[in-house]
Amino acid sequence: MKNAILSQRDLAVLWHPCTQMHDHETFPLIPIKSGEGVWLEDFEGNRYLDAISSWWVNLFGHANPIINAALKNQLDNLEHVIFAGFTHEAAIELAEKLVAITPAGLSRCFYADNGSAAVEVALKMSFHYWQNCGQSQKTKFITLENSYHGETLGALAVGDVALYKKTYAPLLMDVMTVSSPDCYFREEGESWADYSTRQFVHLEQTLQQHANEVCAVIIEPLVQCAGNMRMYDAVYLKLLREACDKYGVHLITDEIAVGFGRTGTLFACEQAAISPDFLCLSKGLTGGYLPLSAVLTTDKIYGAFYDDYEKLSAFLHSHSYTGNALACRAALATLSIFESQDVLANNSILAAKMTVLAQRFLNHPNVAEVRQTGMIVAIELVKNKTTRDPYPWQERRGLQVYRYALSKGVLLRPLGNVIYFMPPYVITQDELTVMFDVAWQAMVNVTTK
Ligand code: PMP
Fold first, then answer.
1. pLDDT tens-digit profile of 349-365?
2. H-run or E-run covering 40
3. DSSP secondary structure string, 178-233?
4. Residue 417 to residues 187, 261, 398, 420, 447: CA-CA distances in angstroms?
């Protein structure tokens, strides 16, 4: 009853993200009372395994005792302070740590308060850097097909998921969009590395022709998450770094979704042994507790803004909640877990279990592909395995999977017809088994209709 009452109150006043609100005339909203570890509990005692880390933010479980304790302590001292002209210990310590753990050469940290804002900051900083260096003809950005970088207008412009972008097209800046290394489209028998290498030719050509007017290339390293968890090989990042250097263009890596251990390494860039000019972080940065993002960049870029005030070369971008003390403290507590526990080693055991559990999906007649990068597994449902014809989107099979899985106590949230798993790192092997079993039942249920 309590669920229904809260749901009713919510629907009278609220407008939810990424939702056609009309759907809630038929699909119930789920009010959550509490969370613990991988579990969420509603007001009627139903529990849901959070298989997608609440939109990929949660790393070490809901109500994590270490993060909780750190936040309670911070709360008694300082909740927030203006971050221009003032500073505080948590922001300083976090920046020191981020500089230390991110790829070499990233020595400056600029805070914002969500992923999209971090992308905006990186785009503006790159553009502004070239202005400050007297290269005002550099005004364009290069992005990949099927990429996603957030929903604010700049971030949306450098993304390429039509569902989110198309409506707003007249409002968005022009970008150059090149074919993606997305290995779903490789030839039969072709390796990820070969396909990713082959696909690089498009980016190389675009740089060759347009580098003079391009500020930066922006990319999601290894996994295009919102673009249906499409994956590619690290060799592409290596080639990209080399080409950006060759043609004098910045490289912005958006690790908002894949940072902090999701792909097997702390940062996905490590798998290509590269350092970007800008690294965007958010989501897992605070363990899924509070909104915070960071853009890491180099001395060289920082130096191009550093001058007498009268030169008017400063980066004046600001958000009220920049460097929020509670968020920085949650991030420090999250990093302390990486320091005190061998999270990546444990994740590799969990990832291996996920590989095994995903096997049974391979031969299903409606599965075109099962793919995995670290702690991310995706299952591509199609109408026809041979031709890979998708199900008509109007059938909303992914939504049916979501509803079925919820009824069995697992929160999956397929992207279109792609079922994926991106669980918190505190999930147990038994919970992984439950998660895959329920997904299997859900898939069988919606593909036999
Ligand atoms: N970049 C990537 C790669 C993302 O996955 C997301 C969020 N899904 C964003 C940017 C935007 O982050 P936020 O939702 O915090 O604005």
1. 999 999 999 999 999 99
2. strand 39-42
3. E----GGGSPTT--HHHHHHHHHHHHHHHHHHHGGGEEEEEE-SSEETTTTSEE--
4. 22, 26, 5, 10, 11
330 shares its domain with 425: no
CA 118 – ligand 1 centroid, Å: 9
The C-alpha atoms of residue 285 and residue 256 are separated, in whole angstroms, by: 8
| Of the residues 340, 364, 397, the one at which a domain ends | 340
Q: What are the pLDDT digits (tens) for 205-256?
A: 999 999 999 999 999 999 999 999 999 999 999 999 999 999 999 999 999 9
Is the model's pTM score more than 0.70? Answer: yes
Nearest CA to ligand 1 atom 2: 149
CB of 225 sitting under 6 A from ligand 1? yes
| Candidate of 56, 147, 148, 289 to mutate for ligand 1, largest count of ligand atoms within 8 Å of Cβ | 148
Number of separate domains in the chain: 2
Q: For residue 345, what are the CA distances in angstroms to 89, 261, 331, 341?
A: 30, 10, 21, 9
Q: Look up the CATH number of the domain holding residue 193.
A: 3.40.640.10
319 and 392 part of one domain: no
Q: Is residue 225 in a domain? A: yes
CB atoms within 10 A of CB 194: 15
Query: Do 78 and 57 reside in the same domain of the chain?
Result: no
Of the candidates 218, 55, 201, the one whose C-alpha atom is nearest the C-alpha of residue 140 is: 218
Q: Would you state the pLDDT for residue 449?
A: 73
Pocket test of ligand 1: the residue of 256, 258, 289, 422 to mutate, having most ligand atoms within 8 Å of its CB, is 256
Asked which of 340, 356, 387 is the last residue of a domain, the reply is 340
Query: Do 48 and 129 sit in the same domain of this protein?
Result: no
pLDDT digits (tens, 9 = 90+) for 50-65: 999 999 999 999 999 9
DSSP assigned state of 168: G
| Atom of ligand 1 lying closest to residue 150 CA | 11
Burial classification of residue 251, based on how many CB atoms lie within 10 Å of its CB (0-12 exposed, 13-18 middle, 19 or more buried) = buried
**Domain that residue 39 falls in:** 31-63+342-447
Residue closest via CA to ligand 1's atom 1 equals 149
Burial profile 57-72: b = 16 or more Cβ within 10 angstroms, e = fewer: bbbbbbebebbeebbe
Which one-letter amino acid corresponds to residue 209?
Q
Is 112 found in the same domain as 197? yes
Measure 283 CA to ligand 1 centroid, in angstroms: 8
Closest approach atom of ligand 1 to CA 114: 15
